[in-house]
Amino acid sequence: MLRKSFRTFILLTAGLLLLSLSTTAAQAEEDSGYMDRMLKAMSGQEMPEIQADSTQKPSWVDEASQREIDSASGHAALPPRAPLLPETSTSEDPLEPLSNLETPEPMVIAAHDDDLFERAPQDIQPSSGSSIVATSSGTTEPVVAEPGAETVLPAPSGSDGTLNVGDLLRITVFGVEELTNTYRIDAKGILTVPLVGELQAKGKTREQLQSEIAQSLIEGGYYNSPSVTVEIMELSPFYILGEVKNPGRYPYEPELDIFKAIAIAGGYTPRAAKDKVIIIRNIGGRKTEIEATESTEILPGDSIKVKQRFF
Asked: What would the DSSP string read from start to end of 186-197?
């Protein structure tokens, strides 16, 4: 009896062990199927379709597992992407040149010159290709320069149009480079020119000096009919003495008056009599004293004397 019971126990135990082994093998087979499909999905291989019959599906086939496999294979449903740029359609040939484009006309802005901003005449520069030349009558005339030619601007002459000591002249004899040069009138009023010699230039006009030089060249037998021009390149300086901080000799500037001359000399000294300013000017070969104010115009060669005041 005891032996029969033991045999029955052994058989039951063996049956349970076999059932457990078969269940483990089935589960392992199902797990192997899941891993096999996952590896195929990741490697891009085609996978067999799972039968729709739910009785034949493996136990691992659920929604979560299927999504993992679909995601690995790239079969997961993705939302549609919007285009990065809108599609454009045109009937025109892209290679056809745009000939219908209109070129805008350049806009010209007119310069506003409010009387040249009330600038002094010497501050106004002439336009390119032309120069402003002062004449002996005190007027100005435009001179058009030839291309490539050097433009020489003669300095303005004095009110009487006569030459003075210290004036720098440019004498041009057409076709004679040896005589074309600059010359300065010395302290005695003499101008020395090659082939001509010494000429008294002080007190004469440019036209008179031109005629004398041409006549001397003819009389000397050098030329039959020379063409001579005389230009004033630099006027004689002016002198300022007396009660100013820096008395001395200064180069002449156009539009110069007593006020500017005093400023050039550093201004008045504390002992200066501002209402006692005298100009010593050469008029007709004679030195003449002229009582002046700050607005009195100065000419080349003038001497200015500022007197001392007494308390």
From this structure: -TTSEEEETTTE
